[in-house]
Amino acid sequence: MSKRDIRRKMLEIRNSIAESVRKMKDRKIAVAVADFLMKKGYKGILLYASFGSEVDTWGIFEFCIKNNIKTAFPKVANDKLDLFWVEKVGQLSPGFKSILEPITSERASLAQVDAILVPGVAFDENCYRIGYGGGFYDRLLLKRTAFAIGIAYEEQIVDKIPHEPFDQRVDMIITDERSISCV
């Protein structure tokens, strides 16, 4: 299957997960991510503002606030992501494709984050991912030293994702059922 076909099929599958089931899965993923962040002692992360049927990231954000983990969010700027520190939801406003983006002015850099939580439509067990096709995270991951974690529902894991030389892998995937490490 092509990336486009996988993306279309996975979005259909993800969108069909009942809201009550999705909430239970979101809690499991948030707990697993929180446990991992605490175990590693990470002090700063890059998180994304979830939208639509994506894994809900707000529980992770609340955990970070309560545990003094600095949290940056991305903002689309031309063909790249700029990073800004965010301390509360009120510092986010609809931006690119109506996704919440920071409206703060305190810039963050990749060097200041220990972990990057990466969205995706589909992942495989080799930690390749398919996003929405803009390449924003591939360009960001190319420059990183931080640990990259894809978060997804178990239904989003596929056998194999076709990849190009510019496609960047994550180091780990956390789902509601397991963690897949590729390091």
Account of the protein in words:
The chain contains 4 helices and 13 strands. It has 183 residues and is of the alpha/beta class. The protein has a single domain (3-181), classed as Rossmann fold, CATH 3.40.50. Strand 1 (44-46), helix 3 (58-66) and strand 2 (70-77) form a beta-alpha-beta unit. Helix 2 (19-40) packs parallel to helix 3.
As for the number of domains, it is 1
Structural class: alpha/beta
E-strand count: 13
Instruction: Give the class-level CATH name.
Output: Alpha Beta
Please write the string of helix (H) and strand (E) elements. Answer: HHEHEEEEEEEEHEEEE
| Contiguous uncertain segments of 5+ residues | none
Strand percentage lies at 25-35%
- CATH-defined fold name: Rossmann fold
Describe the biggest sheet? 8 strands, mixed
Strand order of the biggest β-sheet: 6-3-2-1-7-10-12-13
What would you give as the CATH superfamily? NagB/RpiA/CoA transferase-like
Name the overall outline. globular
First-to-last CA distance: 26 Å
What is the fold's blueprint, element by element?
Elements: H1 3-15, H2 19-40, E1 44-46, H3 58-66, E2 70-77, E3 80-85, E4 92-94, E5 100-102, E6 107-108, E7 115-118, E8 122-124, E9 129-130, H4 136-142, E10 147-151, E11 157-158, E12 172-174, E13 179-181
Parallel strand pairs: 1-2, 1-7, 7-10, 8-11, 10-12
Antiparallel strand pairs: 2-3, 3-6, 4-5, 8-9, 12-13
